[in-house]
Amino acid sequence: MMVKICCLGAGYVGGPTMAVIALKCPDIQVVVVDITKSRIDAWNSDTLPIYEPGLDDVVKQCRGRNLFFSNDIEKHVCDADIIFVSVNTPTKTRGLGAGKAADLTYWESAARMIADVAKSDKIVVEKSTVPVKTAEAIEKILTHNSNGINFQILSNPEFLAEGTAIQDLFNPDRVLIGGRETPEGQKAVQTLKAVYAHWVPEDQILTTNLWSAELSKLAANAFLAQRISSVNAMSALCEATGANVSEVSYAVGKDSRIGPKFLNASVGFGGSCFQKDILNLVYICECNGLPEVANYWKQVIKINDYQKSRFVNRVVSSMFNTVANKKIAVLGFAFKKDTGDTRETPAIDVCKGLLGDKAKISIYDPQVTEDQIQRDLAMNKFDWDHPVHLQPMSPTTTKQVSVTWDPYEAAKDAHGICILTEWDEFKKLDYQRIYESMQKPAFVFDGRNVVDSEKLREIGFIVYSIGKPLDAWLKDMPAVA
């Protein structure tokens, strides 16, 4: 009998993961369902709703064969043997644990719906990043509404990196499956393991108890974010002392115990998970009476916020302490290169900081639409992770912000350029041409250390690169506003 998989949620996790499972397991039928009709329509069209290198090919090979996208949620949940749940788990904006705790509204309603429509035994897999002990809550909802049907809950956290998601799925470092330590729980673990074993070597499929799997995901993201905050903290010290953060991080990364990855100083980390997962970890620590541990992890986010405000202060203080009515070009809005994702991107806080000082901003990003940028700049913190129909409707477009599809257009008549995403194309721009079109003195604030600052200085720019020795010009300007 053909195994049937249904995935609730057709976002950054559900879409690519299910597409790769379908590709690697031709004997399994995979259906991705979502309440948002426009999103499912996009998955069924030639223009997929997310940009991810390699994703188009995978979807085109399987769609209509053993990969389907549908709005008929209940039918497919009813038919499935394994149900992946990858719905959003945003940070709560109000009530108990506001600003830290995960909001499990969407998770809970998914669980109740599964219990309502199920007519046969199901394996329910949590795929969203969810706080530790979510599985327990979900299990209670399912068993109390089970009508004699057996539900096994597994935790199978996602370790995708956007921009390389397809490669990450083809060759994962590890696949983690957590389940109950009962015979039924272990049988469910083996069932899911058999799916991944179609293409992942057995020794890379780790099985643990439920809590270990849930916590491993939060811990991994906290460790990664901590590395970025560590090198960003060093970048501030480098600027103050005349050291070069690239040299320092290269030297540090040469230590095999530390390793070279995730040691690039920048304007700050972004993305849908790091901040959310750390806030979640902090909240769980507080709830378990561990304030010292909570405060330790809080510091990772504090340094990230500090780095963003430090960057804005640097921009403003360099330009004679005012950017009012000055045009500033922002190159890059996504939180990192090779993705159109803007969730928690540092560009939002940098732009808001500049707008707060009355700057006029012109933004260019090769993958992000004007609508998305205006929405991001109009939104309150944490709104982005709730369904679109609950977000503020047509956002009040900020008059001070224009969005263009041409980097040269963005830079024309600008006083300064802020590079906020490390898109490869920013290394190849004709900076001589840009310099000639700008107001003088012309500034470049490189928030990702992508440009050759010496070459730019030869052209005539005043250059600020994070964590690098300062221009004479910048030395005279106070670093902190």
UniProtKB/TrEMBL annotation:
<protein>
    <recommendedName>
        <fullName>UDP-glucose 6-dehydrogenase</fullName>
        <ecNumber>1.1.1.22</ecNumber>
    </recommendedName>
</protein>
<dbReference type="InterPro" id="IPR036220">
    <property type="entry name" value="UDP-Glc/GDP-Man_DH_C_sf"/>
</dbReference>
<comment type="function">
    <text>Involved in the biosynthesis of UDP-glucuronic acid (UDP-GlcA), providing nucleotide sugars for cell-wall polymers.</text>
</comment>
<dbReference type="Pfam" id="PF03720">
    <property type="entry name" value="UDPG_MGDP_dh_C"/>
</dbReference>
<feature type="binding site">
    <location>
        <begin position="128"/>
        <end position="129"/>
    </location>
    <ligand>
        <name>NAD(+)</name>
    </ligand>
</feature>
<dbReference type="GO" id="GO:0003979">
    <property type="term" value="F:UDP-glucose 6-dehydrogenase activity"/>
</dbReference>
<dbReference type="InterPro" id="IPR017476">
    <property type="entry name" value="UDP-Glc/GDP-Man"/>
</dbReference>
<comment type="pathway">
    <text>Nucleotide-sugar biosynthesis; UDP-alpha-D-glucuronate biosynthesis; UDP-alpha-D-glucuronate from UDP-alpha-D-glucose: step 1/1.</text>
</comment>
<feature type="active site" description="Nucleophile">
    <location>
        <position position="273"/>
    </location>
</feature>
<feature type="binding site">
    <location>
        <begin position="87"/>
        <end position="91"/>
    </location>
    <ligand>
        <name>NAD(+)</name>
    </ligand>
</feature>
<feature type="binding site">
    <location>
        <position position="34"/>
    </location>
    <ligand>
        <name>NAD(+)</name>
    </ligand>
</feature>
<feature type="binding site">
    <location>
        <position position="343"/>
    </location>
    <ligand>
        <name>NAD(+)</name>
    </ligand>
</feature>
<dbReference type="InterPro" id="IPR036291">
    <property type="entry name" value="NAD(P)-bd_dom_sf"/>
</dbReference>
<dbReference type="InterPro" id="IPR001732">
    <property type="entry name" value="UDP-Glc/GDP-Man_DH_N"/>
</dbReference>
<keyword id="KW-0560">Oxidoreductase</keyword>
<dbReference type="Pfam" id="PF00984">
    <property type="entry name" value="UDPG_MGDP_dh"/>
</dbReference>
<keyword id="KW-0520">NAD</keyword>
<feature type="binding site">
    <location>
        <begin position="273"/>
        <end position="276"/>
    </location>
    <ligand>
        <name>NAD(+)</name>
    </ligand>
</feature>
<dbReference type="GO" id="GO:0005634">
    <property type="term" value="C:nucleus"/>
</dbReference>
<feature type="binding site">
    <location>
        <position position="39"/>
    </location>
    <ligand>
        <name>NAD(+)</name>
    </ligand>
</feature>
<dbReference type="GO" id="GO:0006065">
    <property type="term" value="P:UDP-glucuronate biosynthetic process"/>
</dbReference>
<dbReference type="InterPro" id="IPR014027">
    <property type="entry name" value="UDP-Glc/GDP-Man_DH_C"/>
</dbReference>
<dbReference type="InterPro" id="IPR014026">
    <property type="entry name" value="UDP-Glc/GDP-Man_DH_dimer"/>
</dbReference>
<feature type="binding site">
    <location>
        <begin position="9"/>
        <end position="14"/>
    </location>
    <ligand>
        <name>NAD(+)</name>
    </ligand>
</feature>
<feature type="binding site">
    <location>
        <position position="162"/>
    </location>
    <ligand>
        <name>NAD(+)</name>
    </ligand>
</feature>
<dbReference type="Pfam" id="PF03721">
    <property type="entry name" value="UDPG_MGDP_dh_N"/>
</dbReference>
<dbReference type="GO" id="GO:0051287">
    <property type="term" value="F:NAD binding"/>
</dbReference>
<keyword id="KW-0597">Phosphoprotein</keyword>
<comment type="similarity">
    <text>Belongs to the UDP-glucose/GDP-mannose dehydrogenase family.</text>
</comment>
<feature type="domain" description="UDP-glucose/GDP-mannose dehydrogenase C-terminal">
    <location>
        <begin position="329"/>
        <end position="453"/>
    </location>
</feature>
<dbReference type="GO" id="GO:0006024">
    <property type="term" value="P:glycosaminoglycan biosynthetic process"/>
</dbReference>
<dbReference type="InterPro" id="IPR028356">
    <property type="entry name" value="UDPglc_DH_euk"/>
</dbReference>
<dbReference type="InterPro" id="IPR008927">
    <property type="entry name" value="6-PGluconate_DH-like_C_sf"/>
</dbReference>
